[in-house]
Automatic annotation (TrEMBL):
Protein name (Swiss-Prot/TrEMBL): Methionine aminopeptidase, type I
Residues at which a divalent metal cation 1 binds: 236, 247, 375
Keyword Hydrolase: yes
InterPro entries: Pept_M24, Pept_M24A_MAP1
Organism this protein belongs to: Nitzschia inconspicua
Chain positions recorded as substrate binding sites: 219
Catalytic activity: Release of N-terminal amino acids, preferentially methionine, from peptides and arylamides
Length: 430
């Protein structure tokens, strides 16, 4: 090759690298403005599906690939909480899968399909393949959507409905009830409210909610197994109402009387979760959430799962930022008023390593130890944080909310309005 073209190409390449270096130094303050829609008088509007217009920024990020150490690598992949690859090679097992605890898969009822002209469907409802946000992995991790005032009102509505459905499901928990019966209740309640159950057919998930019992960490599929006295159960509810997702989960004790180890696990999981939620306010780094959680549970002899994470949420079920629940140095940027995301730590009695079942969804602890999880959809406000899926005066008061040394009662947020509302409710229930 002649020398002149070679030198010219090298010069162009060097200039491009300098431009990218400068841009990356500036990018931490960058946020993606969201699309907006007009709200109806009741605060809910029927908006057409839209994606962010990223055409002007994508070209700068196409070749950028963040390098992470294996130790701190963020989990990515399909699923509600971004599962990483299984820690167990399922190809080594045939008919006799090495289940780690007492829970076994039961029979599943047929998958439902929501067909209703007045219910807005997510883009994956029919074929299981989400399209909105499909290019988000090409963007830098701190590029986070900022919701408009209209969008925040839409998310308040979806969060409120998710909480109402979760409370309904929780009241159905008792010995002899199957998780499939709970799923039926959840499905019918969501559809009756004019919404779509977000998990249904998301990457092919077969049910309308997740029910995770004992050693099941997350993504448990409802089936015909009857709940037993002393089981601990996480019910994870997400609704898609008028184009926006609201996501929350809570633990329940079957029979209401946990053994001492389960009681300690549930209390610690709730307390570390609330401490993480209280940390949220504009200007703070997302990476510190994980340090708060891990530093709280580790001295108690418990562990925090690394294979799954919280996530941004809105029109897209799974968006940026990723919320890691362990100490990390990932560059997920700083919180800005208008960000919406979930914090959902999964805390284990013993090992946090994951065993994925052959159904490609159910994730259990590798040693059969029990796991617990709580989740809110959170909104960063100018004053702090608001839980869009917060409990209300009609919600069930659990023992961990009464006995917590971190926060007693229902946590609604840290803004002045949220604290005032929490005071009014907690004065009545405690």
């Amino acid at each position: 090759m002649p020398k002149l073209p070679l030198l010219f190409l090298l010069l162009v390449s060097s200039l491009q690298m300098l431009q990218m270096s400068w841009f990356l130094r500036q990018a931490e303050a960058f946020v993606v403005p969201s699309s907006s829609g007009s709200a109806s008088p009741c605060g809910i509007s029927l908006l057409a599906e839209r994606t962010f217009d990223r055409a002007s920024s994508l070209a700068l990020f196409m070749r950028y690939k963040k390098k992470s150490s294996i130790k701190n690598k963020a989990a990515t992949g399909k699923g509600f909480a971004s599962p990483a690859a299984s820690t167990v090679n399922k190809s080594h097992y045939t008919d006799k899968f090495p289940y780690s605890g007492s829970i076994r898969p039961g029979a599943q009822s047929p998958r439902r399909v929501v067909v209703h002209e007045k219910i807005k469907l997510p883009d994956y409802a029919m074929n299981g393949r989400p399209k909105l946000g499909s290019s988000s992995q090409l963007l830098l991790p701190w590029m986070i959507e900022v919701k408009t005032a209209e969008e925040i009102e839409m998310m308040r509505a979806s969060g409120k409905l998710a909480r109402q459905v979760l409370d309904l499901a929780g009241r159905a928990v008792e010995p002899g009830v199957t998780t499939d019966q709970i799923d039926t209740l959840v499905h019918e309640a969501i559809v009756a409210a004019g919404a779509y159950p977000s998990p249904l057919n998301y990457h092919g998930f077969p049910k309308s909610c997740c029910t995770s019992v004992n050693e099941v960490i997350c993504h448990g599929i409802p089936d015909d197994r009857a709940l037993e006295e002393g089981d601990i159960l996480n019910i994870d509810i997400t609704v898609y109402l008028d184009g926006y997702h609201g996501d929350c989960s809570e633990m329940f004790v079957v029979g209401g009387d946990p053994d001492p180890k389960a009681r300690a696990l549930l209390q610690a999981t709730y307390d570390c979760w609330i401490k993480a939620c209280q940390y949220v306010q504009p200007g703070r780094e997302y990476k510190e959430i994980g340090a708060i959680i891990e530093d709280y549970v580790t001295p108690l002899g418990l562990s925090t799962v690394r294979d799954f994470c919280g996530h941004g949420i809105g029109k897209v079920f799974q968006a940026k930022p990723d919320i890691l629940h362990y100490r990390n140095n990932e560059p997920y940027g700083r919180m800005v008023a208008g960000h919406t995301f979930t914090i959902e730590p999964m805390i284990c009695e013993e090992s946090p390593k994951v065993l994925n079942w052959p159904d490609d969804w159910t994730a259990t602890t590798v040693d059969g130890g029990r796991a617990a999880q709580f989740e809110h959809t959170l909104l960063v406000t100018p004053e702090g944080v608001e839980a869009l899926t917060a409990k209300n005066e009609n919600s069930l008061l659990q023992f961990w909310e009464k006995e917590s040394t971190v926060y007693k009662g229902f946590f609604i947020g840290t803004s002045e309005a949220a604290k005032k509302k929490a005071c009014e409710i907690n004065t009545k229930i405690l």
